[in-house]
Amino acid sequence: MSDDVIATAAEATEADALPRARVVHTNPDVSSPEGAPLPQAVANRPVSQKSPAEWAYERLILYIQNFEKQLDADHEVAMGFTGGEAGVLRIEGMGFFDPDIITFYGTDAAGARTQMIQHVSQLTVMLRALPKPIAAEPANRIGFRLAADLEADNLKT
Question: I need a labelling partner for 38 at 20 to 30 A (CA). Which of 31, 61, 62, 101 fits?
C-alpha cells in the first residue's frame, strides 16, 4: 500500500497476505495465471500459512491448467527440466511434501516410468506440448484434475 493511503489494520494485513503477480505479453489476448484472480481453493488460506512446497504446487497447477487450455486435442502437456540428463517428462501426476519438496510423476520420451523430485529452491520447469501417444484416445488433461483436487481439498477444510 502506498504511504498516502490510510488503511485499517485488517486491510493492511490482507494486502500483505495477498500474493503479487504481473505479466506482460506481446499479444494482449494471451491468457496467463498471473493476470487472473486466484481460484477460491487457493485464495482461502493466506500465503503466510502455506509451506513453500504447497504454495509452489498450487501455482504450478495454475500454470499447467492455463497451458493446457491453449493446446489442441492432439497434444498433452509435458515438462522439461534443466540440468543433468532429466529431459522431458509427460506429466501424469504431481504432488508436494511439506515443507519444501515438489514431485512430478510421468513417463519420459522413451515411455519409461519417471519421477522427478525437486526442492522448491531448485525448481525450474518448462512446459512443453507433446503429441499424445495414442491418436485414438483423448488427450489427458492433468491440470484440470489437479485443480479439481484443490477444490475438493478446500471443501474438506
Answer: 101
The strand order across the sheet containing 113-119 reads 113-119, 101-107, 88-97, 75-81, 125-131
Alpha carbon distance 41, 154 (integer Å): 5
- In sequence order, the β-bridge partners of residue 74 are none
pLDDT by residue (tens digit) across 75-114?
A: 999 988 766 666 888 888 989 999 999 989 888 888 888 8
State the sign of the Cα–Cα–Cα–Cα dihedral 7, 13, 16, 22.
negative
Rounded Cα gap, residues 141 and 69, in angstroms:
9
Give the C-alpha separation, 6 to 26, whole Å: 36
